[in-house]
Amino acid sequence: MREALEQPGLISLAAGFTDNPSLPVAETRVIIKDLLKGKKGPSHLQYGTTHGDEPLRKLTAQRLARMDKRPKKGKHYNPDRVLITHGSQQLLYILNEILFDPGDIVLVEDPSYFVYLGIMQSHGVHGKGIRMEPDGLDLASLETTLEKLKKSGQLTRLKALYLVSYHSNPTGTTTCAAKKEAALKILKKYEKAAGHPLYLIEDAAYRELSFSGEDTPSALSFHSAANRVIYTSTYSKPFATGLRVGYGFLPEPLFTAAARVKGNHDFGTANFLQQILSSAVANESYEKHVQKLRKRYASKAHAMTRACKKHFPEKIKWEIPEGGLYLWANLPTKVKTDMRSKLFAESLKQKVLYVPGNLCYCDDSTRRKPNHQMRLSYGSASIKDIEEGITRLGRAIKKVM
Ligand SMILES: Cc1ncc(COP(=O)(O)O)c(C=O)c1O
């Protein structure tokens, strides 16, 4: 893919990058100038702590309680539970280190975030795919999978369910609040047979990039969440991907374990980057920026769906995105989309790149990996390139079909 990206004139609808022209350059410039003036300047250029900047932890906890419409004094929203990390990606990696042993099993959406699948693979952790429905996780599929694991004696190896709960990567699906609550109850039911806690890792990386529909509360907001929900999210996507500041809400004993591992990795996320975020959230330039981004991505998503309608054959289906950065297209099953497929080669010939859908499925021997889908991103390409890219892709698809 890297080689392909180096081709001149190639339009990439593959990368999960954000929109370049709307990155908050002016706001960040003002904040940096302010941070470096006066007596406090040097302290911002000093090391911070492993857990993260205290004001940022507090602001992060308050924002989440507000989004979830819960009192900020609620136990689940205590700033002491917040760990600031180098992007949420670092936290996902640390969670794999502290929670799983090689040979363990994690339930994932089928399909799921392929970089997470890579982390699992590198730790020798096996995935089991849970089917998805338009309103999120298929609870029947979750229960059947748990029952099968119990019957085969494998439940003792199951440790968690990983869920990209808002505008998921890659399909754009949001799991509704009722399903998250039900999933927690189902996991709890199987804990006794598992012999240990079964965690829900809720990855909310795209929550703030909603552009239509109501926000749904996180799994932390449920009473039953007690000590079983790990919430991960990020300031990357809604503010600046180059700052790479992420965070998580972790119950004990996981918080202490994760902070210890983070201490070994880097003893704290870059202090200066956290100070920038802290100022942006406190002076509301963050909130204003998020509002602007939502409109921007709504128009880019609209440009993409309009172009798909015009240039794709009728047999190709997709859901209209309500947030996030991705459109998931389903082709007829006989049209393969993997990197060795005729379609991938033809797309490269037409100078357009997509993410083959098969990369987003875990290695689950109980089913064959689907190979007729693609993830298309409207994040980084301009509206003109989105239109041109979909025109080229439509041409490639028609030729192969
Ligand atoms: C679902 C999901 N989770 C987490 C991340 C990590 O983002 P970051 O490390 O920038 O917070 C990404 C990035 O694309 C993502 O798509």
Describe this structure in words.
- By secondary structure, this protein is an alpha/beta fold.
- 41% of the residues lie in helices and 15% in strands.
- The chain is built from 14 helices and 15 strands.
- It has helices at residues 2-5, 25-36, 41-44, 54-67, 87-99, 114-122, 139-151, 177-189, 191-194, 254-265, 271-282, 285-311, 342-349, 383-400, and strands spanning 11-12, 82-86, 105-109, 126-130, 132-133, 136-137, 158-164, 199-203, 229-234, 245-249, 317-318, 326-330, 352-353, 355-356, 373-377.
- The strands form four sheets. A seven-stranded mixed β-sheet has the order 2-10-9-8-7-3-4, sandwiched between helices. The protein has a four-stranded antiparallel β-sheet with strand order 11-12-15-14, covered by helices on one side. A two-stranded parallel sheet has the order 1-13.
- The chain starts with a helix and ends with a helix.
Residues in β-strands, percent: 5-15%
Structural class: alpha/beta
Mean pLDDT: 96
Question: What general form does the structure show?
Answer: globular
- Give the biggest sheet: 7 strands, mixed
Computed CA radius of gyration, to the nearest angstrom: 21 Å
| Poorly predicted spans | none
Task: Estimate the helix proportion, in percent.
Answer: 40-55%
Small ligands present: pyridoxal-5'-phosphate
Order of helices and strands: HEHHHEHEHEEEHEHHEEEHHHEEHEEEH
Give the helix tally: 14
Could you give the count of β-strands? 15
